[in-house]
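User: Predict the full complex structure for these chains.
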Amino acid sequence: MPSPRWFAIGREPPPRRRNVLALLSFLLPLLLWSAVSYVPWIWHPLMRVNDAGTVEWFKPGLLVERAVFAEENAKAVTAGGRAATGERANPVFLPPPHAVGRALWTAFTTKPVLRDELWLHQSLLLSIRTIFLGFMLSSLFGVPLGILCGAYPPVARLFEPVIDFVRYMPAPAFGALAVAVLDIYAAPKIAIIVIGTFFQQVLVIANTVRRHDPALIEAAQTLGAGPRKLLLHVIIPSCLVDLYNDQRILLGWAWTYLIVAEVVGVSTGITFFIGQQAKYRNFDNVYAAIIIIGIIGLVTDQGLAFVGRRIFPWQPRAPSRLNAFLSLLGRKGGKTA
Amino acid sequence: MNPPDANSDYRRQAPAVAERFQKLKQRPVVLEVRDLTRTFVTATGEEVVALRSLNFSTYRREFMCLIGPSGCGKSTLIRLLAGLDEPTSGQVLLDGASVQGPCAARGMVFQGYTLFPWRTVLKNVMFGLLMQGRNHDTAKSEALQWLDLVGLAKFKDAYPHQLSGGMKQRVAIARALATNPRILLMDEPFGALDAQTRAQMQEYLLQIWRNVDVTILFITHDLDEATYLADRILVLKAHPGEVQEIIEVPVPRPRSQAQFATPEFLATRRRIDELIHPPVKSTGEKLPIVRLTVVGDDVE
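Assistant: Here is the predicted structure of the two-chain assembly.
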C-alpha cells in the first residue's frame, strides 16, 4: 500500500503516524531545550568563571556577560596580570533538562528551608484542594443555572445581562474583598476560583444547552412528553456529552485562576512554592513545579476524556490521544521485551 | 398482462375497488381539517399565505398520501396536524374533538429519523410509553413487541449511530406506534434513503399498516410512492397551498411492486404528474444558447 500523503486537508494520518506525531510533540520542545542547554555555541550569553586570574572582582563560579569578561581580561593582560579562564554558560533562569529532571525527583525529597514552610507535595495538595473545592462549588450553582438559561429564554434574559457585566470584572479585583469577608486562609482563595469560574461557566453551559437539536424536542413532544419531562429526559441528556467536555475545559480555566487565588490572604500552595524557589534562585525546582502542574492538568484532562468515553457509550468512538500514546508506550515495551 | 392503455381513466374503478372505497367512507372520521389557514409574516412585513382554507378528512385505518409541488406547504400542513405549529385560522379535529399542541395520539415520523442518540433502540421505543406513565417493566415488554413487529428485536441494545438509515426509520416507526396513536403522520420518511431501501421500507410499512389499527397520513414528493401506498392521494397546489384534488387510487389491494406497470397505476401516476407539474409555458425562462464544444462533437 502506498504510504498516504502527509499534507491532505482534514485527513487523519494512520494510527502509527499519529502516535509518532504525539511523541514528537513532546520530544521536539525537549530537543530544542537540550540543544540550547548542551551545545555551547547556541545562545549561552554568559561566561562562568573557572579561574579568576588577576581580575579582582571575579570569583570561581561567577556568571558575567561575555563582553564584560573579554573586557576585564584585556584590562588584566595590559596591566601585566593573568587572564581569567571560564566557559560559556546560560543564565541561571534556564537550567538544563537534567537539572530539572533531577529536581523533579529531589523537589519531593528536599526539606523546606524554613521551619514553617511546606514540602512540595503538601503545597500541591493544598492547591489541588483549592481548585477542587472552588470548581465544585462553582459547578453546584453554575451548571444548573446555565442549563436553565439555555433551556428557558426568559431565565436567560433575567440572568445573562448581569452575568455578562460581572464576567468582565477581573477576579483578582475581588481579592481584597474576599479577604475582608472570608478571612485570610483557604476560604478567600476558593472564593476567587469560584468568581473566576462561575460566570464563564453559566454562559458556556447555557450556550451549549441552547444548541440542542429542536427536532429531538419535537419528536419527544409528539410522543407525549410534557414541558418538565422535556428538560429532564430530552434536553439535558442530548447535551450531556458537550456539557461534560465544557466542564473539562472549565476545569482548566479554574487552574489559571489558581495563581491569583493563592496570593490572596496568606500565600500558600504550589504558586507560593514556585515564588519561594525563585527567590532562592532554585530555578530547577521552579521548572519542576511548573512541569508537575502541567502533568497534573494533562493527566486529569485525558483521564476525564477516558472516563467520558466509558460513561457515554452512545458516542461514535473517535481516536483518543491518550489511548494512542499509551498504546505506543505499550508497544515499545513489548518490542524490547 | 395487458399493455398499458394510454387513455385509461384513473377514475375508473374495478368493482372490488369501488366497494372498498364505499366501505372506507362509512368508517368513522379520525382526522378532520376545517378551513385550515396558515399565513407567515416575512421580515419585510409581507404576508405570505402558506395554506389557504384546507378542508379534508381521513377515515379510520385509511392510508392517505399528501403530494404537491415544492413550496406547497406540505411540511407546514403536517406540522399543523401534529400540533407543532399553530394555524392562523381553522381547526384540526381528532375523533371530532378540536386539538391543540402536540400529543401522543398524533404520532409523527420525521425524515431526519430524530431517534434519541443516547438511548438504545429498545429505550427509544420505550420513551413514549414511559412518558405516558407506564412502569418500566410494562413499557419494556410492550416496546419489545413493537420491535418484533418492525423486525429489529435483535438490535434492541444497539445505539442509533450503529444502525443503517432504513433501520433507524423502522425504529422511529416502532417508537411512534408504541403509544397507540390514532393517526401516524409521516413527513417524507423515506426521502433520505436509497432507492432499494426505500422500496423495501414501503413493503414493510404496508405490512405494518395491515397489522396495526392506525390511520396513516404520509407526505411524499415521489409519484410512484404515493400511488403505491395510498388509498387516497391529496394533491396540493402551491402559492398558496390549497387542496387541488383528492384522488382515489384505483389500484387494488394487496399492493405489490408488480402493479407499477398496470394501467390503473400508470393512469393515476399520470394524473398526479399533470396536477403537480403543469405543462411549462413557452414564455418561461430558457437557457441562452452558448456553444463551448467543437462542431461535430454532438452528443445527440
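Confidence is low (pLDDT under 50) at residues 333-337 of chain A.
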